[in-house]
Structure formats: structure tokens, C-alpha cells
């Protein structure tokens, strides 16, 4: 029986090992009598190990043991939750547990055993072994403050950290009467760190609950993507990337699908859902531990597809419920993004889309089927009206300017205000009046909505300075021509301006 074990080891332990020299550790191979493997009826025949520095501060120790078992009937208990302790004649170096066990055991003090962080790692977290597990009793291993938040490491977790295109879970940590929201779970090397707003004491036993509604939705989208990508793969359309959105997801493909291809793919995907293909997770016995991805896992959808993935998946295709292919959007180069939604989101999307249609139908007084024609006609009509309005306003501005011109003379300042026009109107007036004598103040808008202001002519600097005093919401500048924006007109301010230059 070959058992493979892994354990995170702290930098201090590694330093101690290295100081002792690698040969000291290699000699452990000879110390069979010193191995205690869940009782004394089993002998470790050989051991090989590898120490990897997976990041600048994290070390991972990976062990493979060949175990001979004198009592085969109980040999499988090794594969259970029994802790395995390894010690040499001086002190226990490591405590660690099988990655294939259902739960990790913490180690009791054993002689001079120094407690090491025997942790579940990415790829072998409780939520990855059983994606339907909603709660877990576990212990706090570390808690570090980062700004006004705390990063809590637990012995194991039912909260999936971000990865494989799947966003992080949220949930709650319960400690006695206290309840802490887990805002997100992030990865640090092969560890999962729970982000909370209060500190937790090391060694505390906590109950961890996942936000199941959100997680199940993620599982539907994620497993849906596996199935969709598997069907697209068969058509030589490899998935180059994918994204899970708040409502709409996409797979990035090397090209756009034709309309008929899209229909065929949708039919095929949904027929596999109806066929309720089983979805299983395989952890190969000779599994590798990737320094970034952790324990490698293969996700099988019946005989249709096998893909390495760290995410949480449904156990059967039927639970995806359905997949709807939406529009396609151009991606990088000739790539195309195929939008889709899966699972119960389809119901929510249908309900909200129906509400939008119903509301538009009501405000335009046509049936939903006629909405496209109606809205297109409204857009054309609105463009025509805008163009006519702008021509008429231009004409009105020119005429208004001509009237104002009659009142202008050297040394005089004239104020013009119209509430229902914009800056375009004022600028048209400026064009007509810029060479006239005197100084002109043009204002638009009214009340809290504010408006625009232009000042030009002989005394632009003095008049605009005074105008700024009178209109507290006015900001702007410019030499020769002052142009500004009035955030809002205070009570009585417009009247004061008019009185100033009558
Ligand atoms: Zn996956």
C-alpha cells in the first residue's frame, strides 16, 4: 500500500532541518522502528520525501510511504482519519495526516512533539472533497491582521477560495454566541484565508457555514461551463477562457458560432442535462501536488469529458437544470465571447426580462412582439426631433442676439437670462454678439439644476469677477471670454445679477 502525505511546514522547522543537514532526514528511512503508523501492526518499508519551497515564505513537505500491513482487514483504517506520527530518536519532526482522509486530525502533544500546521491544502479542502458539505467544525490555525480586516486560516474549510474561474464563497464563522461574516476566501500559496472583521484566537474550535444558495448557484454555472465547453470541444472550438458574472457568464472561443451552430450546441448541451450524466471527481493515486494549484483533481462528466479543475461541481448534469446561450461579443483578435446562463439563474433572468418587456409594453402601448419595431421607430423619430429642435434653437438664438444687439453700447453691461436653454444656445448668441460694444452676461438654467454662464466684451474681467461674487455656485474662467458652469442658483441670486446691471 502506498500512502502519500503532505504537510505545510513552517520556516523555522525547515531552517532546523537544513541546519541539521539533509542526511539526518534521509537517515529516517532506516529508523523503521521509530515510525508509528496508526498502531504497531504496520511497518513502513520505505519512505521518500521532497521539500519544496512553494513561495517565498511557504514550505511544503511531500511524503510517499510504502506500508506493509500485517492485518489486511484493518489496513484501510490507515486511509481513514488516523493520524500518522513520524519521530526520530530526539524529537518528533512532523505531524501530518493523509490528504485522502475525510478530515484532518490535530495532533496531541507526543513526547517533544512540536505542533506543526497540519493543514488541508488547496485541492484537498473539505469543500473540494464534498461540494455538498454545508458546515464544518474546525479550528483556528492562524489569524493575521491586514488593514481593518483579519485573515483567518482554519484547519479545513467548507468555503471554496476563488479559483478555476469560480468566485470565492461567503459564509459565517460561529464561535459560541459570536457570529462572524466571512466576506471572501482568498488563496495564499496552497492555503485558504478567510476574511473577517474581527480577530479569532488560535486553537479556537469554530463552526463554519457556507452561504449555500450562492454556492449552489456557482456550482450550476461552473458545472454548466464544463458541459458547454465539452460540447464545444467536440466541434474543435476549445474554450480559451471563461468568466462567471453576477448574472451572465461567457466562454471565450477562437471564433464566432454561426446561428445554426449555436442552436445545435444549445440542443446538445441540454440533451446531456436531460440525460443526467453523472459527474465525478477523480484524484489520481499518483497525484501530483502543483505548487500553485495544489492537489490535482480530474472532473469527469460521464464518458463525455475529463478535465483538471479545482472548483466545486454538481454530482449530476441534471442539477444544472438547463443552459441558455445568449449573444456573442467580439473578443481579442478573431476570438468571440459566447454569453450564457445556467441553472436557477434562468428563472430569475426570465422573470426580470419579462418585467422589463411588460413595463416597456405598457409605456409604449404595444404588444411585446411589436416592441422592437416600435422602439426603432421611436429612435428614428427622436433623432429627427432633436435635429429639428437644434435648428430652431439656433435660429432663435440668432434672433435673440440681434434684439440684444440693439441695447448694447460702449461702457454698458447687459444681462440676458433664459431658463430653458443650454450652453449651445448661449454660444450661438456669443457668435452673433462678440464684436458688439459693451459687456454681455449670458445665463441659462435656474434653481437647483443650475446652468451655464458666458461673459464677454469690454469689461469681461471685472464683470465676471462681480458675477462670481453674486452667484455662489459659479465656477469657470477664460481670458477675453469667460465661460463657466453654475452648479445651482441660490435663492434671489439671479434677481441680484439683473439688478446689478440694469
Ligand atoms: Zn470545474
Automatic annotation (TrEMBL):
The keyword Repressor does not apply. GO terms for biological process: alanyl-tRNA aminoacylation. One of its GO terms (molecular function) is metal ion binding. The keyword Ubl conjugation does not apply. Residues 296-339 form the Threonyl/alanyl tRNA synthetase SAD domain. SMART domains: tRNA_SAD (SM00863). Belongs to the class-II aminoacyl-tRNA synthetase family. Alax-L subfamily. This is Threonyl/alanyl tRNA synthetase SAD domain-containing protein.
